[in-house]
Amino acid sequence: MKLERWGWYSVGVSALLAALHGLIALASGSLAVTAELVHNLVDLMGAATVLTGLKLAVRRTKAFPYGLYKAENLAAAAIAGLIFLTAYEIASNALFAPSAPVRSDPWMLALLIATAAIPLAFSHFELRAGRAANSPVLVADAREYRVHVLTTGLALAALASERFALPLDRVAALLIVLAVVKTGWDLLADAMRVLLDASLPSETLLRIRAVIGAEPAVAEVKWVTGRNAGRFRFVEAGVALRIAELDKAAKLVHRIEAEVRKAVPHVERVLAHIEAPASPHVRYAAPLADPAGAVSAHFGEAPYFALVAVGREDGAWAESRVVANPHATVQRAKGIRVAEWLVRQKVDVVLTREDLRGKGPVYVLRDAGVELRLTDKHSLAEALAAARDS
Ligand SMILES: [Zn+2]
Known about the structure:
It is built from eleven helices and nine strands. By secondary structure, it is α/β, with parallel strands linked by helices. The protein folds into three domains: 2-195, Alpha-lytic protease prodomain-like (Up-down Bundle); 202-275, Cation efflux protein, cytoplasmic domain (Alpha-Beta Plaits, 2-Layer Sandwich); 281-389, Nucleotidyltransferase, domain 5.
């Protein structure tokens, strides 16, 4: 994996710089070079965290079924704490420690020039690779290495100034510590955002919404949320579908996941909640004693049924039909057959005057998600108006 290879390169460069700065710090006693050494160690820990995060994230166990994605962020927060502690140590040395002599030999200066050139060259190649792979992690790492030209340059200037008896070492050390603290602060802020499940940026959520909405079978995208865990993104969306068949819906959900992954990098999981589409109408059914609209006192024996679609907003009758009960004359299980027939008519609510509690039709309607409501009204119009008000 490309990202992992560059992670190792970054570890190698930071380790090399830390070794060289450690050597110069020991030989010179310069506080500025020591600060730069700490800077390298901080980078080394950061790069190592990225690498272990890559490996840990995909490991799922019974005790951690959601993966250890956030282990990386937890480590980053711990490293930030370590950075602040070290920064405090160096800063208090620079400010309050009794002055000690600093050695400044030509070989140290030459080596410092080299340690400023190495990260500059590495940053150039890493930035090119990062842009080619469209990896924000690589690009950020490359930009960070550019800062080294400045901080190592400060250490170099401090050590060179000693040759002219200018005591700039402590000032340079403080400036480098500032750069290190900035790195630690960014690290901590990012880690806390992820650990506390901050939302994905709104433009990312809008892009995901557009991708899901582009599916022809999606009637409406009701909501989209998303969070980071480690470098990965987890997305949840509520969608209303135009299809009712479960197998088709399952396929669609998989297609949505694939499309979102394609459009947005680092998406690890997409959870689609299927929500009922909000129809503009409520479809009522009521047994009638005559086609004119008298509500029957019976259910299964009623000669007619009214099927009325009522506007959810305005209560207007968008469509109304009176249909002869197709099962009025059968002998057995009349009520159940009528209930099954009403389910096939896709009604939402059935109004009856007959109390059907404990009888077959109740179970048929309930299994199909159809609501059964008792009414005491004798005309269809009154029964519908009452049902709407309740
Ligand atoms: Zn750095």
